[in-house]
Amino acid sequence: MESQLSTSARARVQALTRPSGSLLMYHFVASLILGPFFFLLLIRPFLRQRTLQYKFGDQSVQMSWGQLFRQEINLSYERIQDVTVTSNVVERWFGLAKVHV
Questions:
Q1: pTM of the predicted model, to two decimals?
Q2: Contact between residue 17 and residue 54 where contact means Cβ atoms under 8 Å apart
Q3: Ramachandran class of 72: left when φ > 0, alpha when ψ lies in -120 to 50, beta otherwise
Q4: Which strands sit side by side in the sheet containing 60-65, from one edge to the other?
Q5: Within its chain, how far is the Cα of 76 from the centroid?
Q6: pLDDT exceeds 80 at position 3
Q7: CB under 8 Å to 14, separation ≥6 — which residues?
Q8: How far apart are CA 85 and CA 72, in angstroms?
Q9: Which residues 6+ apart lie within 8 Å of 42 measured at CB?
Q10: String of b and e for 50-64 (b: at least 16 CB within 10 Å)?
C-alpha cells in the first residue's frame, strides 16, 4: 500500500522523537483533579514522559520507554490494519490525542 503522506509531512513525522511537552501538563491537570495526593499519581507519567522515544523509519515505527525496565515496541507498517485517533475535551484543549494502532 502506497503512503498518502506528502514529502514535507513525512519529514515532520520522521523528525518526531519525543512526546509533546503539553502531555506532561495534561497529566499534571488530570492528577490535580484527583485530590491532595496528586503528586504520587504524577510520578509514573512524569518518568514515562522523560524516557519515551519514537523512531519512524521507512519500514517500521519503534517506541521505547523506561529507565529500570526498558520496554520497546517495533511495529512494521505492513502489519498495521487500523488507526483510530480519539481525544477528550481536556486533551483537545492541550492539542493532544490518543492514537490506537
A1: 0.59
A2: yes
A3: beta
A4: 53-56, 60-65, 71-76
A5: 17
A6: no
A7: 56, 57
A8: 22
A9: 27, 28, 31
A10: eebebebeeeebeee
User: Cα separation of 92 and 7, whole Å?
Assistant: 27
Query: Cell for 60?
Result: 517500521
- Give the C-alpha distances (Å, rounded to integers) separating 3 from 9, 15, 42: 11, 17, 38
Reported as a single tens digit per residue, the pLDDT across 13-52 is 656 677 777 777 787 777 777 777 777 777 777 888 888 8
pLDDT of the residue at 4? 60
Q: What one-character-per-residue DSSP string does 42-101 give? A: HHHHHHHHHH-EEEE-SSEEEEEE-SSS-EEEEEEGGG----EEE--HHHHHHT--EEE-
| Cell numbers found for residue 22 | 503539553
Half-sphere exposure of 44 (CA within 13 A, CB side): 6
